[in-house]
Amino acid sequence: MHKGGSPAYVAGAQKIRALRRSFFLALCLSAAAATAQPSDSTLNRRDATAWLNKIHKAAQRENYVGTLIYQRGSVMHASRIQHYSDLVHNEYERLETLDGKPREVLRQNDVVHSLIPEAKLVVVEKQEAKDRFPALLATNKNDVLDLYDMRKMPAERVAGMECEVFALEPHDAARYAVRLWAEKNSGLLMRAQTIGDGGKVLEQVAFSQVQIGVPSEKQHILGAIKNSSSWNRYEVTYQPTNIADEGWSIAVPLKGFQKIREVRRPLGELRAPAPGNARGQVFEVLQVVYSDGLTGLSVFIEPVSEQRVRREGVAALGATQVVVRRIADFWITVVGEVPASTVRQFATAVEYRPPKAVH
């Protein structure tokens, strides 16, 4: 008789299958235990503040180079980043796109040079808020924790690095949840996700490869800035303004959002200078920026113009929501990485009363 048909063989095979089922069940239970969060995983305010500050400072003070992958909805693209800091915390950064048209952003402290090679054009502007990945906080205030609970989750590896994982869960529906992966030793942010309803990942940015603590090559960045000095140059200027003087008022409709900036600024498509049109399709708008410390939105106000065809409506891409409405002879555009209801409420809160003429 064939060995496979013997009672002993059948019994043995059944035992092996039972062991496999038990092993598989144990794996499932282990996975469930890893994803389940104990009730005491919420960090106290001191520890949560310490981690948020550590993550934010690491982005500014560590030397690191790596590849970033951005995902917004179904759109993905990659960039190469180099960042260096010196003993007095001057920052030097280079960000190069790896997809689409070549683009390069060079930063020395708060002065940003955006290079558009095919036009031999460099756009220079001051960057006030240092809240782009892997930096974190849009303001220096620690009242983020008045609006979010911060929970510690099981540790994971990202880009080969051991990371602490945190979930920031909002107290209300006016903002999204956020998930953060921070390298255990330095605190450098390895991955950040914006989470929508049902735990859906709306947007994320992460290192796919990174080296931390590398020797500084800031001279290469300074050299690249110098080499672009012969290109066509356009300086973006932000003029502080008071929108109330121009008849506008915005009653902040939701708790936690603070106005952090009111400016008059250029906006639009910059391209190679042409006779009589040295600035491309650039126009001036009023911009009011709001932040809750972790995320934010902007309200743009621009006059109706025949050169720019607009229409009222809504749009969304990943976590970013947009509402456009018309008030009198102005277009109001509200853009933010917040739920659609938040953007709509801000758009509705914008009011206009024409200022009285001064005689």
TrEMBL record:
Domain annotation MucB/RseB N-terminal: ranges: 47-220
GO molecular function list: antisigma factor binding
Statement: the UniProt record of this protein carries the keyword Signal: yes
UniProt subcellular location: Periplasm
Signal peptide: 1-36
Entry's Gene Ontology BP terms: regulation of polysaccharide biosynthetic process
Sorted UniProt keywords: Periplasm, Signal
Gene3D superfamilies on file: Lipoprotein localisation LolA/LolB/LppX, MucB/RseB, C-terminal domain
InterPro entries, per database record: MucB/RseB_C, MucB/RseB_C_sf, MucB/RseB_N, MucB_RseB
Main localization of the protein described in the UniProt heading: periplasm
Residue span, MucB/RseB C-terminal domain: 244-351
Gene Ontology annotations for the cellular component aspect, listed alphabetically: outer membrane-bounded periplasmic space
PANTHER family: PTHR38782, SIGMA-E FACTOR REGULATORY PROTEIN RSEB (PTHR38782:SF1)
Entry similarity comment: Belongs to the RseB family.
Descriptive protein name: Negative regulator of sigma24 activity
Organism: Cupriavidus necator (strain ATCC 17699 / DSM 428 / KCTC 22496 / NCIMB 10442 / H16 / Stanier 337)
Recorded name of the encoding gene: rseB
